[in-house]
Amino acid sequence: MKFPKPGEPVRGSKTGQPVMALLDLLGRSWAMGVIWYLKEGPSTFRKLQEHCETISPTTLNVRIKELTHAGVIERTLDGYALTSRGEELFELLSPLGAWARKWAKEMNNKEN
């Protein structure tokens, strides 16, 4: 399994610029959904799968491995949880989520 890693080629960057490696990781299906859900607290595999609705067990397993390898989530006694690095990443992404909601509203108003 190939994990996005700074300094190695990733989608969008032959040199593996750190921000591009991060965007490669976060751009994979359900990666952001897993992070967003775990912000609410630890979760079991089954609860993550229920939350992500259409995710296959194989895809969820791969995302968990990738996010764990990146140091964003970890396995705890209560299930999977964000690490301190994962919490920091969520705090950085949260304003992006707010911006996206504003942008979506503006785009929807533009179409009407």
From TrEMBL:
Residues 17-108 form the HTH hxlR-type domain. Keywords: DNA-binding, Transcription, Transcription regulation. Pfam families: HxlR. InterPro entries: ArsR-like_HTH, HTH_HxlR, WH-like_DNA-bd_sf, WH_DNA-bd_sf. CDD domains: HTH_ARSR. It comes from the Bacteria. This is Transcriptional regulator.
